[in-house]
Amino acid sequence: MKAKSRRPVLVIAVVGLLGLAAYAWSLNRASAPVPVAAKPAGDSQPTAVETARVTGVDFADEATAVGTLKSNESVVLKPEASGRIAGIGFRDGALVDRGALLITLDAAIPDAELAQAKANLALARTTHERNQELLGKKFISPQALDASAAALKVQEAAVQLAEAKAARMRIRAPFRGIVGLREVSVGDYVKEGETLVNIEDISSLRVDFRLAEAWLDRLARGQAIELSSDALPGKRFSARLEAVDPQIDPEGRSISVRARLDNRDGSLRPGMFVRVRLSFGERKGVPMVPEAAVMPGARPAVYKVVDGKAERVAVRLGARRDAQVEISEGLAIGDQVVTAGQLRLKPGAPVNVAAAAESKPAEGKAAE
Of 61, 320, 72, 60, which Cα lies nearest the Cα of 208? Predict the structure, then answer.
């Protein structure tokens, strides 16, 4: 009886489990995502971009740089021997000639040594001359004459040494120039190598500056250079290229260049900052695009719009002027290039050019 009473209970349990399973399956099926058919590749939406035309511009082909003026000759005078200053023979900022006596140190001892050496030389010379006469009369041997000749040479060398020591106590201008501001006075004791005063030859000036190595083959000795200084607004100065350093800087890939200019009127001074401009003539119809169109990389490139699609084109860049860059290879005047939105583009992608974004070609002369 117990077995018969359990069967209805088991049947009811099995039916209930089956019902729960069917209910769960129906809920899971209802929540499953409905597959969406993939869109054809050709139906992708165009990318909105801004464009500009490659324009032909006339401008002066030139290179610019900055530099610092330097004296034609510049030296800081320092004594070769210690001593007390006995005299100063110049005024601060004065023009002095080459060889002018500028500073005299106390030379009492060197002068006395020089006088003694000259006296010994005179005695040695007289002795040698007398020995020459005596040898002619056979009163002395040739060896005695040789000894007096050697003694004469020793005394001549002693005079030269004394003169050199005495000369070191008198400091003279090595070239014609303007002396600076002295920091010493008469009576000061100065040591060997101590700074006394500087002297500058500013009748002509040098200017050193750097250019990119791309200009190397266009530089020539004697080439005209224009200089300007912020300290003298509105004025222009002419210089001539004097030398080009044979070594190119391996880090910055730049060339060191030196030019020289006449400054006999003294309007410029060493140490002034100047702007340098080298002109290589004028070029006509140079293809230019906005700098924003160029995508940086190992090889610069732009996106050109062809039949409504973006085409990636590698380009070679040239001079830059007023936020525009020269395209020396890769594009032609009139080509349409993307200036904004190119980061979202891929080669062959369709583009939608903004109605007011495209700039019109404007040929003319670039502002200098």
Answer: 72
In angstroms, what CA-CA distances link 141 with 134, 150, 152?
9, 15, 17
Tell me the C-alpha distance between 135 and 147, whole Å. Answer: 13
Name the amino acid, one letter, at 230.
D
Q: What is the pLDDT of residue 20?
A: 67
Binned at pLDDT 50, 70 and 90, residue 180 comes out as very high
> Is the same domain home to 295 and 361?
yes
Q: Which of 282, 300, 325 is the last residue of a domain?
A: 282
Instruction: Please list the residues that pair with 352 across neighbouring strands.
Output: 48
Closest CA to 113 of 194, 169, 153: 169
Angstrom distance (rounded) from CA 225 to CA 275:
10
Residues 164 and 209 in one domain: no
Whole-prediction pTM value?
0.59
Domain count, the chain: 3
For residue 189, what are the β-bridge partners?
A: 84
Distance of CA 349 to the CA centre of its chain: 43
Instruction: Decide if 83 is inside a domain.
Output: yes
Ordered DSSP codes for 188-212? -EE-TT---EEEEEEEEEEEEEEEE
Query: Average pLDDT, stretch 135-147?
Result: 86
Q: Cα 267 from chain centroid?
A: 25
Strand partners, 47: 351
Give the confidence band of 135 by pLDDT, cuts at 50, 70, 90. confident
Give 6's pLDDT tier (boundaries 50, 70, 90): low
Q: Within this chain, do residues 120 and 158 fall inside the same structural domain, yes or no?
A: yes
Do 218 and 263 fall into the same domain? yes
Domain, as residue range, for 144: 77-190
- pLDDT above 60 (res 263): yes
Dmax (CA) for the chain in angstroms is 179
For the chain, report the end-to-end CA distance as a whole number of angstroms: 116
**CA gap 295, 302 in Å, rounded:** 6
What 8-state DSSP symbol labels residue 89?
-
Does 277 have pLDDT greater than 70? yes
Average pLDDT, stretch 142-157?
Answer: 91
Mean predicted lDDT score pLDDT of the chain: 84
The residue from 164, 190, 216 where one domain ends is: 190
Q: Which residues contact residue 226 at a Cβ distance below 8 angstroms, ignoring those fewer than 6 apart?
A: 236, 237, 238, 239, 276, 277, 278, 279
pLDDT at site 249: 85
